[in-house]
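User: Please fill in residues for this 360-position structure.
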């Protein structure tokens, strides 16, 4: 069985049992960008829901419906991660890891700025409070600060970041038909916050040119608070230790977060579906890989049974993910275009005289 394994997933699987004859062929983007369906692989890891949606729409994938039986029935997974990536009655994406959005912060920088204590760091209760957090933790003068108080990612987490913020603030992220809701007052509030915190010099524009500027700054101690995947806090622990913490975006404790999955999918050309199923059940959804992904990279298990024994570092994000109000990835065929549109607007917002009202 040949598998395209994206990024660091290969580091685990290629050091484990070789019985499935998994070979490194290329990045998963080869499948995600293919219009042919004939990519000479049987399983691909790492596809986002919007990427899978495009392939499913073109009828290039096999469904996972038969996989979800017994101890792997759909109710054993986090609901949003399983139920959202489907077309009609067919499930074309199998989530093997999930992530949730949150604020990641440097506790020492916060405490030094008077924002709570080490045992009880302050939590922003509103966008105005988050602005004040950014202002108080920013250090330095001039166009480039020594420490920025806040980072919004202008080239990654497009719909995830924006719709998480809308949902956390109590707004409606999606319409009844699953289309994005871009009409609520929360959108203007968010855009007003982004423009204000950035133009006042407390938020960095660094992610416009470097999508990793926020996470790199958090690790380096030059970024106090970022709004990205919760896994960024775990990534920062080797550098910051216990001072790398999670905070809820305003309203998140009440209204939940945004869940998105790292998916596996099966090109239609495969001839070894049962081997693919066996590999997923015995390896990718096993406790060993769940522990590896969580503790080393902050990626959480998609199956609820694999949460037992994880570090207390994951308690908060688990609670937010489990909130019934949490929203998640929708299988939009043109999801990539939507993200591009969001980034274009957000970048213009902090690089021109356009107002929040005009941007919304």
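Assistant: Residues filled in for all 360 positions:
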């Amino acid at each position: 069985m040949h598998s395209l394994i994206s990024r660091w997933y290969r580091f685990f699987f290629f050091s484990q049992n070789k019985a499935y004859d998994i070979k490194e062929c290329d990045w998963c983007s080869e499948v995600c960008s293919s219009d042919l369906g004939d990519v000479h692989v049987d399983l691909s890891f790492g596809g986002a829901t919007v990427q899978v949606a495009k392939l499913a729409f073109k009828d290039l994938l096999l469904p996972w419906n038969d996989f979800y039986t017994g101890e792997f029935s759909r109710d054993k997974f986090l609901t949003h991660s399983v139920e959202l990536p489907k077309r009609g009655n067919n499930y074309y994406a199998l989530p093997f890891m999930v992530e949730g959005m949150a604020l990641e912060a440097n506790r020492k920088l916060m405490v030094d700025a008077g924002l709570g204590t080490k045992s009880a760091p302050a939590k922003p209760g509103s966008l105005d409070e988050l602005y004040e957090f950014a202002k108080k933790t920013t250090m330095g003068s001039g166009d480039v600060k020594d420490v920025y108080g806040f980072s919004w990612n202008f080239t990654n987490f497009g719909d995830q970041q924006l719709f998480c913020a809308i949902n956390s603030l109590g707004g409606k992220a999606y319409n009844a038909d699953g289309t994005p809701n871009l009409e609520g007052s929360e959108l203007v509030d968010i855009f007003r916050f982004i423009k204000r915190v950035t133009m006042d010099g407390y938020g960095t524009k660094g992610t416009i040119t470097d999508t990793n500027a926020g996470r790199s700054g958090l690790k380096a101690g030059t970024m106090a608070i970022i709004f990205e995947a919760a896994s960024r806090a775990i990534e920062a622990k080797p550098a910051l230790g216990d001072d790398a913490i999670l905070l809820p975006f305003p309203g998140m404790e009440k209204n939940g977060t945004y869940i998105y999955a790292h998916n596996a999918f099966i090109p239609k050309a495969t001839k070894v579906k049962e081997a693919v199923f066996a590999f997923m059940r015995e390896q990718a959804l096993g406790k060993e890989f769940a522990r590896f992904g969580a503790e080393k990279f902050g990626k959480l298990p998609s199956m609820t049974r694999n949460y037992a024994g994880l570090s207390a570092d994951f308690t908060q994000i688990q609670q937010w993910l489990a909130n019934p109000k949490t929203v998640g990835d929708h299988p939009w065929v043109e999801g990539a275009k939507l993200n591009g549109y969001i980034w274009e607007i957000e970048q213009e917002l902090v690089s021109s005289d356009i107002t929040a009202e005009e941007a919304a």
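For context: The longest strand covers residues 94-106.
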